[in-house]
Amino acid sequence: MQLVLLGPPGAGKGTQAKMIVEHFGLLHLSTGDMLRKNVAAGTPLGAQARTYMDSGQYVPDQLINAIVEATLLGPDAQRGVVFDGYPRTGNQAQTLDKLLTRLQRPITLVVALEVNLEDLVKRLSGRRVCTGCGAPYHVKTMPPLQAGVCDACGSPLEQRPDDQEDTIRTRLDVYHRQTEPLLDYYGKQRKLRRVDAGQGIERTFENLQRLLEGGQ
Ligand code: AMP
């Protein structure tokens, strides 16, 4: 299975992707996570990507397409992939289609996670992430037992630089202009399904699971 999760920042793509991976045994391909690892490790790619990321803009297509291609050609991708945060532009979507056609593993399904704008802003501004293991928290809806400390590994939690209120607005605007047209692109290919992702993590996953197991 080659599954694409589409949706604005804060829709829960990362959280749902992790649950899908556990349940269906796919590879989780998150371009955002890959970029953040490169930034943390101080690689040349990380240095190039950082300014774009911190200001909420997209990293140039050719950089992103190259890291995705390298991953898809590797052995881990053979078992199937859930794409989280990629593709995000028309160029990326076309590049992915070409690559997957070449590999004879076309996209199975594209799922759009839908959440209203007000909830997205609340989710993103309250989001905290563990600096050790990457576990996600939310100051109101999913707080850790001890404020600022990860329940799982004890490391401090932090707010992503791009989760500041100003940058959130930019990211939502960039999504609207550059990524939303992909709904049409995949709609025309008859691969698009929409899932209400505004009802909590478990309920959303149940809906997704039903869809992936062919129930609707
Ligand atoms: P995410 O964790 O998916 O929200 O990604 C965080 C940031 O990484 C985005 O705001 C972009 O700056 C960058 N990024 C991640 N994936 C992509 C992509 N497919 N194309 C361009 N930029 C990306």
Layout of helices and strands:
Elements: E1 2-6, H1 13-24, E2 27-30, H2 31-41, H3 44-54, H4 61-73, E3 81-84, H5 90-102, E4 109-114, H6 117-125, E5 127-130, E6 136-138, E7 157-158, H7 165-179, H8 181-188, E8 192-196, H9 201-212
Parallel strand pairs: 1-3, 1-4, 2-3, 4-8
Antiparallel strand pairs: 5-6, 5-7
Helix pairs in contact: 1-9, 2-3, 4-5
Strand order of the largest sheet: 2-3-1-4-8
Mean pLDDT metric: 94
Radius of gyration: 17 Å
Task: Give the structural class.
Answer: alpha/beta
Number of helices: 9
Ions and ligands: adenosine monophosphate
Q: What portion of residues belong to β-strands?
A: 15-25%
Descriptive key words:
216 residues; alpha/beta; 8 strands; globular; binds adenosine monophosphate
